[in-house]
Amino acid sequence: MFSYEKKLQYPVKIKTPNPKLASFIISQYGGPDGELGASLRYLSQRYAMPYAELKGLLTDIGTEELGHLEMIGAIVHQLTRNISDTDARIAEFAPYFVDHTTGVYPTAASGFPWSAASMAVKGDVIADLTEDMAAEQKARVTYDNILRLCDDPDVTDVIRFLREREVVHFQRFGEAVRLAKEKMDQKNIYFTNPVTDK
Ligand SMILES: [Fe+2]
């Protein structure tokens, strides 16, 4: 079970609305490398993970990603709160506005709604952990791209925090792969599944 703490992992306090920026940042809410997919990927992969410490790692990082999802939701909300009709007509934001007004909806910046097809749960130790390392790198690149599009220090400060966490997660999954390999047959260079590959 989860217990809810009514505060963000890192504070989000944006003074100036900017719907154009929100239309890009929403991708880390419901895009292919966003926080919703990250949390569901790890919190789903953990069931088939045979090693207790790695199951714990997936639970730990998956839960933190839920906290990041909440932060991205807060950023999008604060960037679009109380906007004028003139702001709603900004070309980049108008397509989102017509479908969702200023509600926070899990979609990619390109307009494609969140899909479970953007994440994987293979039920194989090496396949899943390798997927997780790639996912963290893709999330980091998305944050890099957002930083290139963003000038507001209230936003970049939070995005930099989230980017840093992706780097830490990548490192932790790297350690997890090393640990998993130590536990598996070291002579099995392909790291095939010991359950089926006798
Ligand atoms: Fe992450």
TrEMBL record:
Keyword Protease: no
Family matches, as SUPFAM superfamilies: Ferritin-like (SSF47240)
A single GO molecular function term of this UniProt record: metal ion binding
Organism domain of life: Bacteria
Pfam families per the UniProt record, alphabetical: Mn_catalase
Entry note: cofactor: Binds 1 Ca(2+) ion per subunit. Binds 2 manganese ions per subunit.
Full protein name: Polypeptide composition of the spore coat protein CotJC
Species this chain originates from: Intestinimonas butyriciproducens
